[in-house]
User: What shape does this take?
Amino acid sequence: MIAVTGAKGQLGGELCRQWGSEAVGLDLPEFDLLDFDGVRRTLRELRPHAIVHAAAYTAVDKAEEEPDRCFAINATATGVLAELARELNCPLLYVSTDYVFGGEPFRTEPFREEDPASPQGVYATSKYEGELKVLAWEKHYIVRTCGLYGRLGANSPGNFVETMIRLGRSGKSLRVVDDQFCTPSYVVHVARAIRYLLGTSMFGTFHIVNDGFTTWYRFACEIFRLLNWDVEISPITTEEYGAKAPRPRFSVLDTSKYQRFVDAPPLPHWKDALAEYLQEREKLYPRNKVAG
Ligand SMILES: NC(=O)c1ccc[n+]([C@@H]2O[C@H](COP(=O)([O-])OP(=O)(O)OC[C@H]3O[C@@H](n4cnc5c(N)ncnc54)[C@H](OP(=O)(O)O)[C@@H]3O)[C@@H](O)[C@H]2O)c1
Assistant: This one.
């Protein structure tokens, strides 16, 4: 049995759906990462064969206002899970982020797993500290991914695609950042890759994102093109958008280490992945078929 934290979130929820009865999903309120004794108790009782740690404090801008809480969840609690994984002698897979590469704005080459991290801001730094905690247990995987979207979990705050669809419906003109390059990724594809990796026992760090890269503006344009919606949308800069927390200007991840597994599930191009999600979404939320 595999213990999945963040089971009510986007990725944790998708992992639980794909694993079915093989997984036990853990999340708030019964499972609180800030209750370290409770976390220890739960996992010692479960004695899982593996722990997949997809829960996190993910509110990137809010994290700037509550760094202690963000670090406690993303770094300290991850350390508790690493200790438990060692005690239970089971693999631990920690989900991390492209944000660990926030400090190289002039970069044009995708980042490889061994490239030095340069996290900027509270969320990114806390996730990187989580990575360092996980390194203490040899049977670890660190999976860095980016821009997740897919079926929302019961607790998910939303995602970029859903935000664009909501704003697109409002009929207002939109302004979207066009100077941050990365690869938005579909949770169904990321979850398949995570499940595959766990079966390899090839521990280490892996970059798992869809293929190719884009900007948020171009991603938004593709969403509306696929939906066939006529939305007025214009590109803006990161400065014009003015978010509280810093975002990487270029955080494209090189997935060739994962691609070397010849039988690994594919990581389709981001445009194909988006089209797949929008088709799937029509089945999930039929009323949203109505455009505009
Ligand atoms: N979303 C992205 O674009 C993205 C990009 C790169 C990497 N990642 C990483 O990928 C992983 C999954 O992301 P996601 O989009 O699936 O996140 P998500 O939808 O926000 O889900 C995270 C889950 O963790 C739970 N959680 C938060 N604090 C907790 C606590 N103290 N104890 C127990 N559970 C807690 C959340 O519950 P509440 O909602 O109730 O707080 C939520 O159910 C995270 O590790 C994230 O850092 C995400």
Q: What stands out?
A: The mean pLDDT is 95. DSSP finds ten helices and twelve strands in the chain. Residues 67-88 form the longest helix (22 residues).
